[in-house]
Fold each of these.
Amino acid sequence: MTDDSHKPLGDSTRIVTAGRRPEWTQGIVNTPVWRASTILYDSVEDLRRNGHGDSHHRLYYGRRGTPTQWSLADALTGLEPGAEGTFLYPSGVAALAAALLSVLSQGDELLLVDSAYDPTRGIADKLLKRFGIATRYYDPMIGAGIADLIGDRTRAILLESPGSLTFEVQDIPAIVAAAKARGVTTILDNTWATPLFFPAIEHGIDLTMMACTKYVVGHSDVMLGSVTAGPGQFAALRDTSHQLGQVASPDDCWLGSRGLRTMAVRLAQHQSSALTIARWLKEQDGVAAVLHPALPDCPGHEFFVRDFKGSSGLFSIVLDGGDDAARAALIDALTHFGIGFSWGGFESLAIPADPPAGRRPRRFAGPLVRLQIGLEDPADLIADLDAGLSAFRAARGARR
Ligand SMILES: *Cc1c(COP(=O)(O)O)cnc(C)c1O
């Protein structure tokens, strides 16, 4: 008989219990909202003894958090085996900025993946540049070749896998190995996979970031970001975040914790519906390619198969010819897909996807549409897309 008492818990079990320390919950199932700015002390002596902000998980001043924020941070740390700690931010972009500023100093160079989320480019090209930090963009498919780009001033490599809009999957282990050999810090935008489908710290990433706005919150109604730090990385992240005055609101963190409890089941449904729809789309007249990491059309599909435990609900399709107006005809014909930014909520969304100016152009057969597959019945979404593609083909034909 094998002793399985040390078997690691499954994701769904961990996500239900994560971060629920009795001293924070006081017996309430989900850690309640502890709002605070001032914390009162019993005496001057008590204030002198306890009134400093460097001790972890002790009430000191609202900006340093309350059990509501600590509970969510603790839960996210618990989902990343080997992680040291998590800091929360009022948005995903704030999390990215803090992660970058905690590592980079004047004169340093950042290597940034060319397929990154557009506002990440904004941080590099505007904010970091103003403080004398240079950025070089690299091809998402570079893999071990990143070693040739690492110079004496390279201090950090930012990865995002799969990439925004175009979904290239990076060879993360090869990039991590090259970075470690040269003492360079790796930062990953892991919003798409979450730690459930890609435990980043276990794969050697130093700082892994999520726009919790997406799958953690899961209901399209809260902005929130997180950075989880690997061994030896948390103190610098926390100090920089404190210096920046970063604090996520207790109410938003409470909604984040509430969303987190169902993230595993929601992701399973997003995964299954998105795969059903992606496979259907691949066979349709008017669709030239489906950019979904789990399908072979997607660059880096082999790394997805090797490294990821699952796929989420966001992918793009490449239309077979047609112009911007024909693409708009498709999107405007949809009834179950909302037209709007962000993703990770319960509702399906569709937007025209145009890789930002500045990215090295990839050649596509036509314009791209990014789809977020929500929790509706896949059959209804397929019928909707079928009508959308008819509208696209009619509009495309009219212009030929
Ligand atoms: C949405 C998003 C972000 C930014 O998150 P916000 O909470 O909207 O600031 C960062 N990275 C990726 C990949 C995203 O999709």
Amino acid sequence: MIPLVDLKSEYEKLRSNIQKEINKVIEDSSFILGSNGKEIESKISRYTNTKYGIGVGSGTDALLIALESLKIGKNDEVITTPFTFFATAEVITRVGATPVFVDIDPKTYNINPELIEKAITKKTKAIIVVHLFGQPADMDPIMKIAEKHNLKVIEDACQSIGAVYKGRKTGSIGDAGCYSFFPSKNLGAYGDGGIIVTDNEEICQNAKLLRNHGSTKKYEHKMIGINSRLDELQAAILKVKFNMLEEWNIKRREIAKKYTEELNGIVNTPFVEKESLHVFHQYCIQTKCRDQLSSFLKKKNIATAVYYPIPLHLQPVYKYLQYKQNQFPFAEKVSKNILALPIFPMMTEEQQKYIVSSIKEFLGDNYEGD
Ligand SMILES: *Cc1c(COP(=O)(O)O)cnc(C)c1O
């Protein structure tokens, strides 16, 4: 079986270093908010050219804590994309605010900046921008709109660590950037983890309080927070894996380039913005016979996945928001046609050739245009 991601093959490359780091943490027996966490925080903030990094328990918590650090909550509205992982909108609802969706640009799958202004009301406080699949969203017009209307911008960079928009790393452009260290992300831990990066001292201080029961001094609580820290074992593993991030992102781009060379004209291949650096957390194609292709590939022992089959405005839990079918035609169309192919840094040429020839074998008979 060719899997979607192959974490074992990454581990094999790093085995001895990772085991050494894990052992060190256990020997030192300092497991929470220790030196490894601090090191990975400063590595990531330096890498993204931001002042502060605040390690937290997951990418979802990074988004949640970023919203709370900006004091966004009850009666507020937050604009975001309906075509993303559920957590992006979930955290908006969790803090007591209302997600307001606007449609995507069908080329990049990211929020369409031209549709944002129409969605702004007196209650709008922020925009959560997602850099989906590792491709930077168009930040310049978004930042301009935010400035004009006095809105905060949070970047959901969970899929885009290392991606660059006009010379700047995604996550470093808005007020706060959120990354996930979920195992399959481009920089993945061996469990859950996440980080917030920011240049804003107040956001940093609030986030440090919020992740630790509102406390930085033992048993003195200044805020109602939660328990959401990046633990030392994960931080130690991330220190080792961080050294591979650039090289492995380059590998992902090479694999993506080869896919596109082979599949262009047969399926709809990913559009890549010229001024951006895409890090291909996912390589997604579009085809009208998506479901048939997916089952054919499964029979050929090739794993595929659909990100995401139901746009968020049509999720059962958001029925109360009263969005309608066809309200966001592009998000809805893409969710019907999109299919993620296997992509991981250690993918072999042979594996990729087999995937490409299997797709060609199927679509040779079934191609009906996009
Ligand atoms: C993975 C992901 C998250 C959530 O990260 P977790 O670490 O799994 O909590 C949020 N948004 C997007 C776009 C993601 O891909």
